[in-house]
TrEMBL record:
GO molecular function terms noted in the UniProt entry: tRNA (uracil(54)-C5)-methyltransferase activity, S-adenosyl methionine-dependent
Entry-linked InterPro entries: NA-bd_OB-fold, SAM-dependent_MTases_sf, U5_MeTrfase_fam
Origin: domain of life: Eukaryota
Membrane-traversing stretches: none
Organism: Malassezia cuniculi
A Pfam family: tRNA_U5-meth_tr
Protein name as it appears in the record: tRNA (Uracil(54)-C(5))-methyltransferase
GO biological process assignments: methylation; RNA processing
UniProt xrefs under SUPFAM superfamilies: Nucleic acid-binding proteins, S-adenosyl-L-methionine-dependent methyltransferases
The enzyme's E.C. designation: 2.1.1.35
Length: 443
């Protein structure tokens, strides 16, 4: 009798925990949709499972349930890649998508689904049974690839990676702009980066602090604290001692930065994100150094334009491609008219687009939420002898009340943070109807 009661209470407890898990996932999902819009994988799910079935699952409120084959090893064939680079397969019952990192379309793989997300299961790759023609494992250039969550595509030749990225842009137009196939804009080939390794001028490894250190109970028995990036299968931080996509300067500094944190680990109250920024020490220097202080100023030269910016603020991370992006914008027919042309750089950071493009325009104006970046943008204008640029600190949409440029002579550059533009910004942009829009997406 007693044993049966214990069994019932354990079952009740686990049902309660499951309800809590689903409530919390549902809340997080709603919050994320409100902030970032629907996740791209949802559109793959709709195509793979079918709209009717998705509607059925949503109506029954079971979209987060741990359905079969959760926690069972099985063999699946990958149908496609998600926008984030995971291989996607359909579950045997056809009611869930299974997301498998480091797998490619056409590959048959043994997988272990371990977590239930909304309408899909996250799975670990156990074994690859067949290989895609696209796969070139000899191209992988990192000892952590396949474990670290930082890179997804190293086993794919770069030309094919560019094709995949073009597809992501096409799908973004199709799914988010809600345009019919017939009027979808043609997406041109993706411009490759001159450097595909050793290009990142910023790395931000992080660490979590074990509770014994947080609570001060560790004494001399300090556990090892991994400093690096998230392990794709466990979600826990793994040690990263080198990162081949980081610049040589950053990689040279990484061991010392890690060691100095470990030496002081007891002084931290919580985990932290570590900044390593490759910067010129000054504009005459020929070699860069690493800056770790968020409040320090970093220096960069793009073409002939000099930039100082706060180390903790945004600056494009791939030094090799910035001049090509600027050149590409210059090649578009934005300022050849007889009438004076104007440029508005929204989300302007320390003035990258406004200042590199200023010589082509009658006037340029930039807006940016970070006051420290705007201070730098103003100083950068002075530093480069640019006198036709004004900068405003504030929300991007504030710029519309502050400019009086004729819309038909105005180009707007939009380079928002990862989550994109606010609705208010879009509304005002649409109302302005500028002659040209240049959109630079970090997503
Ligand atoms: C992707 S960065 C682009 C910066 C700059 N264009 C560059 O290339 O260096 C996006 C910038 O938008 C800024 N930002 C974020 N939210 C904003 C908002 N609501 N209004 C204006 N700027 C914002 C961030 O501080 C960041 O500097």
């Amino acid at each position: 009798m007693q044993r049966r009661e214990n069994g019932n209470s354990a079952r009740n407890n686990s049902a309660k925990l499951e309800r809590k898990r689903i409530q919390s996932l549902r809340k997080n999902y709603e919050r994320s949709v409100a902030k970032n819009g629907e996740p791209p994988i949802l559109y793959d799910i709709h195509e793979m499972i079918g709209k009717d079935k998705v509607d059925q699952i949503l109506t029954s409120g079971t979209e987060f349930d741990r359905v079969s084959p959760i926690n069972e090893e099985l063999t699946v064939t990958i149908d496609r890649l998600s926008a984030h680079g995971d291989g996607l397969a359909l579950s045997p019952a056809g009611d869930r998508v299974i997301a498998v990192p480091f797998s490619l379309p056409g590959e048959t793989v043994r997988v272990y689904p371990y977590a239930a997300e909304r309408l899909y299961l996250k799975a670990r790759l156990v074994e690859r049974l067949t290989s895609s023609d696209m796969r070139r494992d000899d191209l992988v250039n990192c000892r952590y690839f396949g474990t670290c969550g930082g890179c997804q595509y190293q086993m794919i030749p770069y030309e094919q990676q560019l094709e995949l990225k073009k597809r992501v842009v096409h799908n973004a137009f199709k799914n988010y702009a809600k345009l019919q196939e017939g009027i979808l804009p043609e997406v041109l080939p993706t411009m490759g980066s001159p450097a595909t390794m050793a290009y990142r001028t910023k790395l931000t490894p992080h660490f979590d602090l074990p509770s014994s250190i947080r609570k001060g109970t560790a004494g001399d028995d300090i556990p090892h604290v991994p400093i690096g990036f998230d392990n794709v299968a466990t979600g826990r931080v793994m040690d990263i001692e080198e990162c081949p996509i980081g610049t040589p300067t950053i990689n040279a500094a990484l061991p010392q930065v890690r060691a100095s944190i470990l030496e002081r680990i007891k002084t931290y109250k919580n985990g932290a994100t570590v900044l390593l920024r490759d910067s010129l020490p000054d504009f005459d220097a020929s070699e860069s150094v690493v800056v770790t202080d968020h409040k320090a100023t970093v220096h960069e030269i793009v073409g002939k334009t000099k930039f100082s910016s706060p180390a903790g603020a945004f600056f494009q991370n791939n030094r090799s491609i910035i001049p090509l992006v600027i050149e590409y914008i210059e090649q578009q027919d934005l300022f050849s008219s007889d009438k004076p042309q104007y440029l508005v750089d929204t989300y302007c950071g320390s003035g990258l687009f406004a200042l590199t493009l200023a010589p082509h325009f009658h006037e340029v104006a930039g807006v940016e939420i970070s006051a420290a970046s705007i201070e730098c943008a103003k100083k950068n204008a002075e530093l480069n002898g640019i006198t036709n640029a004004t900068f405003l600190a504030g929300n991007a949409e504030n710029i519309f009340a502050n400019i009086s440029y004729p819309p038909e002579q105005t180009t707007v550059v939009i380079d928002p943070p990862r989550r994109g533009c606010d609705d208010e910004f879009i509304k005002q942009l649409v109302a302005l109807r500028p002659a040209n829009i240049v959109y630079d997406s970090s997503a």
